[in-house]
Amino acid sequence: MTLKDLNLTISNSSPYPELDYNKLFKRFYRGAHSEDGNGLGLSIVKQVCDMAGYSIKYQYVNDRHDFTITLKQITKTDFH
């Protein structure tokens, strides 16, 4: 996990191939090699990001799954 500027990146190295970006954040989606879980985690993360005004993106690079959440700059008007 790294935090640079307003980008929080969570990385996971894996022998499994790239996930389907078009389905990744949908409820109950599980990758082809998923054995555990019910496919709700990334859907919940996406909903929280949307509600908070953050963006989330996924990349698969060099056998590594990267999820980057771009946080928004907080201003004084956010506290009114």
Automatic annotation (TrEMBL):
Pfam families: HATPase_c (PF02518). InterPro entries: HATPase_C_sf, HATPase_dom. Residues 7-72 form the Histidine kinase/HSP90-like ATPase domain. It comes from the Bacteria. This is Histidine kinase/HSP90-like ATPase domain-containing protein.
